[in-house]
Amino acid sequence: MSLYEEKKPHSQDFFGEYRNFWWNQDFIELMAKRWCLNKVNSVLDVGCGIGHWGRVINPFLSKTCVISGIDMESESIHNAIRLTNTYELEKRFHYSVALADQIPFQDNTFDMVTCQTLLIHIKDVIKVLNEMKRVLKPGGLLLAAEPNNSASNLIEHSLSFDDPIEIKLKRIQFALICEKGKSILGLGHNSIGDLIPGYFSQLKLSDIKVYQSDKASPLIPPYHSEEQKVYLKQFSEWIDKDFLMWSYEETKKYFLAGGGILNDFNSNWENLRKSSLDFISGIQNNRTHSAGGIVFYLISGRKIQI
């Protein structure tokens, strides 16, 4: 077995059950009507992971639509195929291992080319978007679902709301240094969603539209909804593994690459761990609550017909 196969699959820690609550179904239905997805007969999902995004949009596509997915991780592709079989979608869903900047399809192949939280992991976003455009048919839809993750650092909950400004700024600075380091290392920027419309313009796409998900992730005691139960289970599992922003080693790598120093990292990590444990303690006592806002864009454009 090669080193590539042995290493932990990319983003595996974020492929939990909570991903099933990322979108409000009626919002996706509305967007599908705006994009006329019922007329789409072929889709390529780039950086598909375990196939979540394809299954989200599937109910709104043509009933005969064929969905292809590519991802660099063989284990993710294996799980995407397994889940496709579980949902009895194997006749129309096809997955294979491939790189986003070397898409193994001919020019002008798909009615729609899309990605969900792929570009936040990409060094050369323009190169990947150009590849996505290349395999898109003239008049076809290019659709990117990408966030501004930096904004989440400003979302308050009941236990942090009255923290001193200095503490809040230190928390935000820590996150921003880590995000900068991740980008410097060529692993993508976590808030690249803000720039995608401009990149679409550079690619000379037409009819560029920007929408924002209407989804929030509220925490409201006594946390009886299925979504809240799943989220809290996942959050607890992350804390048990010392997986806070990322793993300890990964976060340290990003922080140092972003210009931070080791002593500052250790103190910031301990503060983050403490606040996470306080958060869970507050849950156990029905004291933690938040509206749970997010910034998640849906950005679309069409390939000009010649």
TrEMBL record:
Pfam families: Methyltransf_31. Residues 41-156 form the Methyltransferase domain. Keywords: Methyltransferase, Transferase. It comes from the Bacteria. GO terms for molecular function: methyltransferase activity. GO terms for biological process: methylation. PANTHER family: GERANYL DIPHOSPHATE 2-C-METHYLTRANSFERASE (PTHR44068:SF11), ZGC:194242 (PTHR44068). This is Methyltransferase domain-containing protein.
